[in-house]
Amino acid sequence: MNYNIDQNGYYGDFGGAYIPEMLYPNISELKQKYISIMNDVNFKKEFDELLKEYVGRPTPLYFAKRLSKKYNTKIYLKREDLCHTGAHKINNTIGQILLAKHLKKKRIIAETGAGQHGVATATVCALMGIKCVVYMGDIDIKRQSPNVARMKMLGAEVKSVKSGSKTLKDATNEAIRDWINNPLNTHYIIGSVVGPHPYPDMVARFQSVISKEITEQLLEKENKSKPNHIIACVGGGSNAAGAYYNFLNDKNVNLIAVEAAGKGIDTGESAATSVLGKDGIIHGSKTLLMQTSDGQITEPYSISAGLDYPGVGPMHSHLYRTGRAEFISITDDSAMQAGLNLTQLEGIIPAIETSHAFAVFENRKFKTDDIVVVNLSGRGDKDLDTFINYFKLK
Amino acid sequence: MNRIDKTFKKSKKILSVYFSAGYPRIGDTIPILKKLQESGVDMIEIGLPFSDPLADGSVIQKSSTIALKNGMTSMKLFEQLEGVREEIEIPLIIMGYFNPIMQFGVEKFCEKCKQIGIDGLIIPDLPMEIYNRSYKSIFEKNDLYKIFLITPQTSNERINLIDKISKGFIYMVSSASVTGTKRKFGDEQIKYFKRIKKMRLQNPTLVGFGVSNSETFKSTCENSKGAIIGSAFIKFLEQNHLKNINLFVSKIRGK
Hints:
- The complex is a heterodimer of chains A (about 400) and B (about 260).
- With about 400 residues, chain A is an alpha/beta fold.
- In chain A, about 45% of the residues lie in helices and about 20% in strands.
- Chain A has 17 helices and 14 strands.
- The model of chain A has no long low-confidence stretch (mean pLDDT about 95).
- Chain B is an alpha/beta fold.
- Chain B contains twelve helices and nine strands.
- Chain B is globular and about 45 Å long.
- Chains A and B meet through helix 8 and strand 11 of A and helix 3, helix 5 and strand 6 of B.
């Protein structure tokens, strides 16, 4: 079984480009050019240089001594939280802004949930001097205000989305509508491994630097080229895709995908797509999707804005359907506790999205000599208010 | 002969009107169909509402949301349309996004359409490639025309491909936009209409997106077989009684 994308843009049953004709020229241009642009020597050089000098890569693979002791296994943290702007999102936006330059686009649009992708996009647009518009759900604007302020300071225009559930799904709808209205001068930087082909594959490739570094760093630290387990949280799934990428076809590496159960799988307030979803179409991609029996997309819920998405990337749907990855859903409460736990054991405040990944240790046992890598996808500065209110720390 | 072909054969300046099924009220579907036919509309597009209509502007987003709140579903629409052909003779097209159709079952959906007497389907997010690969035979088996869109950015080469597999007519999106955003057509759009006219496609074309009044309707008729009006009609329904639909239609026709 091959877990990478096939030549038609599908991962098994999932993927493809279910797009209106208005988007055809742009998507088709991307499809034809993305591989050759990414393989271009000059592109590679500029991309690698920016990742090193601007983003601060490679990010450390840190052995979490106290956490390992608590759970009686060997836990390494891939420190994507130390990337410039505070999350893995910038790996992709650096890649896509360079791609947009190659395509001679003059304007960038993006959607954002937690605001991390919005900030990462606004940042690279400031770096390159390109106009930037970020769509963000009205509810998310309220719960992630520090990131809204950062985007504005970086010179981006933040457009509040008041349609539908007023979260990530609707922000993505509006960004797509903007692209339909501005097909010639605009590039749409999608922030996750979602959307029509070639986006899921393109974003996964830009994020694959995470797994490449894990391989190199494990060799150095453990004299092994692969871990036994990789744990990553999944909303759309970009940090997970990046952490899994080089290990997708190596079944000795167990992939653990952590979804947001919200208030609980059966409460009607959840974002655990693998459990609650059926095959469907969202944002131009065939994938697992939370929906009614009539095919209307339902409104997900999670305390973390970045996991609050009714679908999941097509690669992850395929990993789930084939049993290649182990899917675990974690409630708001478990995630919050795990976030506080990491903070006080290791001195690292994780994003609430990432906190979901750490809750796995309370739910699942690992062997003493297992090497478990957790992708620490983002830092929790943006979530301080939520943490403080939740634990009544004031 | 499919009703769409008949209509293009006998009529000029074709006016096709779109509305969201279940809007403004759940029971309005049949009354609106009857009133539109009475008012001399040539063809009707029945919108199957979807929670996330990517290609639609704010007006149709809103009418879709209200229709869904009113309880409209694919099943409900088919129930309402049962026996519609006893009263409605003009072509009926269902316009909807692919996900609800997929959940209903594409084959079952198409069979239902045939049984009711639907003539064609417009599914903006089911592009030509996927249609050809997976669904063409199902549509053909049920005598349903799949109507494809072209836009000002569609290459001539692709327009020719679309023309080859199209039946009935080609839906010419007036400009790079979602539905319902333009008040009048600029030089760029007129140039695009003329360019398509010159291509002498085997299928007739209707212009949609941004046709909202007698002026824009007239200018589309000069360069194509007619037009599709959606958002402007939904806006009319927001503020007017169903019984006045004939006033809307005659105003568009410039009478």
